Give the backbone structure.
Amino acid sequence: MSKTEMNEEILETKEEVKEEMKVSKDKSEKNKKSKIIDELKLQIIELEGEVANLKNEYAKAYADTENMKKRLTTEFENSKKYRIQSFALDILPVIDNCERALEHETSDEEYRKGVEMIYQQLLNALTKEGVSKVDALNKPFDANFHQAIMTENVEDMEPGIVLQVFQNGYVLKDRILRPAMVKVSE
């Protein structure tokens, strides 16, 4: 081989190497771009998962808030509805004592009239707030409203009827404050 041919061959090889480098460079750029695209796709998938988790957490927090709102509303309504309960329980013994005082005969009618007025005023005040007596006498025994402290076998009376009320029972709207203490037929 001559020098010229060798130089030509070297030039051709250089050209081929340059071309291969160029192709290789293009491939490496394509690989870099492909790699970046793959990384971005992975990042998109991760972010979509994170968005789904955050949406789920938001929905849970919203549901918890709504449940708490309903619970607090119910508690507030019950508190408002039964606000007088503890006061009424404290007043019931006073009403019992007024009833006992009115059961006894007295020679002082003014005293009796005064006790009766106080008794009626207390009952009226409690009635305005939703407190009412449990009607028990001659009614069927109901363990929800009556507390049997005695039983008696009475002829011509069916079993389970309230014969006598020893202490009146009271309800506050739909809640029992105190059951009536009663004697029941057997």
Remarks:
- The longest helix spans residues 3-81.
- The radius of gyration is 46 Å.
